Each structure stands twice: as C-alpha cells, then as structure tokens.
C-alpha cells in the first residue's frame, strides 16, 4: 500500500517536524487550460510515493507554499511557465541556484523563490535541494480551456524525470 499524499485545498499542509526524503510539489489549477498540468502529473506519479516520498497537488501560490518547502530533503516542483521564448511543451529542468533573480519584485506578488528565501531567513528547515521542472505553456488563463497537445505530451517525460530523481533518492543519494 502506498503512502501517497495528494493535497487539495481542503486538506491540511504537511506537519512541521516530520522530514520527508522527497516531496513532489505539483502546482496548477485543473480548471485553467495548460495550468492543469501539475494536477495531471500528480495523478500519474502517485504510484511512486512510498514512505519517504510525498506527492502534493495544489493550486496555492506565494506564502501559502511555505509549509510545502520545509522538512524535506529534496523538493521537486512541477509547474507550467509562459516565457514566450520556446514552443509549448518545452521542458525546463533547473536547480534552485540556476534561477535568475528578477530585480524590483512587487510586494503584491510572492513566488516560490521568495517563499524559499523567507523560510531560510526565518531559520526554517528548508529543502536542501530544490529542482524545478517547468513546461512551457500556451494558455494558463482560459477557464475550462483545453490543454495544448504539446503540453499534454510532456507528461510522460516529466514522469520519467521525476522517477529518476525519486530512484536516485532511494539509492541513498540525497
């Protein structure tokens, strides 16, 4: 029996104090076209979850993600992005230290990077390793919109990449 955890807005965040080996944080809103990617990936990877692996699917953002970035060794974040620099379905794999800081951030918008920075400044036990798997989307705002075929085609590839990170962790590399 798997200890897979899918968190929705009705479910509580992970409890502070219990460290997980790998947490897969799938971000997105199933009602918004390509933004549903995270929800679909979470469904696909539930079978990977064991005692040391936790799968979370949530539409939350900003400081609401604080509970999800602590008490874990490796955090794998799955999400969509719209950069306008690549075709829909392009997969980006970045470690936290590879992300560029955007100057002049707005106090009205707090992203995952700012949440990680805040957690560290507060001395919270933040993930030692953070990996971002992002897929270039075409449309993340159309309510009830269909997912772009190229974005949907990225799901099995994301599954394979996530599985490799989980297997690496099970082999004692985290």
Give a verbal description of the structure.
The protein is globular. Helix 1 packs across helix 4 (155-170). Strands 2-1-3-5-4 form a 5-stranded mixed sheet. It contains 4 helices and 5 strands; from the N terminus they run βαβββαβαα. It has one domain (20-170): HybD-like (Rossmann fold, 3-Layer(aba) Sandwich). It has 174 residues and is α/β, with parallel strands linked by helices. Helix content is 23%, strand content 21%. Helix 1 links the parallel strand 1 and strand 2. It has helices at 37-45, 112-121, 149-153, 155-170, and strands spanning 20-27, 53-58, 72-81, 91-95, 129-136. The longest helix is centred in the last third of the chain and has 16 residues, at 155-170. 36% of the residues are buried.
